[in-house]
Amino acid sequence: MFYLSLVEHKLLLPPHRLGLPIQDGIKKELELIFLDKVIADVGLCISVYDIRKIEGGFIVAGDGGSTYAVQFRMIMFRPFVGEIITAKLKESDTDGLHLSLGFFDDIHVPVHLLPSPSRFEPSPDTRYKVRWIWEYGDEFIIDGRDKIKFRVQSVKYPPMPDELEQLKAFSPMVITGTIDYDGLGPVSWWEESQEKDAEQDEES
Amino acid sequence: RPSPPPRFSINTLKWIRLGYGNHLLVYIEELHFLKLFAVRLSLSLEMKIIEANAGPLTNFEVLDFINSKGASRDTTRVIAPIAPSEYKVYDYLADSPACNQTREKIYEFLERSKRYNLAKAEMLNIINICPTSLVEIDPIIEQCEDRFEGNRLDELVQVVVEMFSPPPTQPEPREGIDEDKGEVMEEEQIDEDGINEASDEEAADENDEENAVAEQINEEE
Lengths: 204, 221
Prior knowledge:
The complex is a heterodimer of chains A (about 200) and B (about 220). Chain A has helices spanning about 20-35, 165-170, 185-204, and strands at about 1-15, 40, 45-60, 65-75, 85-95, 95-100, 105-110, 120, 130-135, 140, 145-155, 175-180, 185. Chain A is of the alpha+beta class. Chain A folds into two domains: about 1-75, Dna Ligase, domain 1; about 85-205, CATH 2.40.50.140. The mean pLDDT of chain A is about 85. A three-stranded antiparallel beta sheet of chain B has the order 1-2-3, with no helix packed on it.
């Protein structure tokens, strides 16, 4: 899920940070600029890991602080295709499932990547719009009680839209996942089959 | 006197999308100011990705990093130098198998799993997810049937269970070793029970395997 990325950035250290030791001041400024933001094709910035190089310290005419060129490493959230991740159910509607990791929300399991055959019905739980049910002999319900394991199908970074209305709902990083495989989906689905396997082992 | 170049208050930036070629796209959410524009680098804002992939990190390593900044010690969450977004990552990881792992266990797992010729992505997946049963490890391993004949996949699951099982709950004062184990198993979850019982049968095989590996290492030395 996480990678280190080496980044170089020229930043202006504003005057109110000049009292701190230089590494701390620069780190705070970097965190302010980058944390919880998405860099296209690199991922979501989680933390500043370390600072490798600081150069510069020039003062440009008209600025109150000094300008530095900083080389540093950041922890990035960037799942790879095929990664298995455990998430919570955030939304369940006719498009499919929307999952969340707490620190990252834009995970979508579209209808065609749910186990087949699946159907939906109005949800008794008011948090969600519909409730998805997998029909496989028994009925397996997808609800918010459990953690849900999914496999990453793709990670996309859609370009920024021009219109304002689209911007409000815009996500700069979108993960598409699938739960259409043995072992994926709500964790409780597979715990029951583990019990059955263990019982069979005992008998044999 | 020329007017100073415009500065945008960081507080009004909701998010930045930094594209290639060092162009900076900025979105500002202020009612009278709703514009999107590309700002060419000036000396004061210039970002370059030198290495997008400078190495993968296991969930454990990220949890360890945030912990080392003082996450677990500061219950108020105001004193330690950790941002709210970092705390969200911490909360997620503390609720995952990573919270029970140590660096030594991970290294040992990597050693013991070398013989299975796992891809790097598969090893990362296994360390982060800790599959403790066949059905959990199935989506992680590609071409299972071809690469893992017979019991080999079971063996790999056993290695995972041994290395990364959560610590047992506090044992009662000992009266006899067997009675002790019984109580611990009852307190654990039901699926753990199943695995522990299965592992007793496998334990004999495991010991043979371990002796073989040890002999191999000795021969190499």
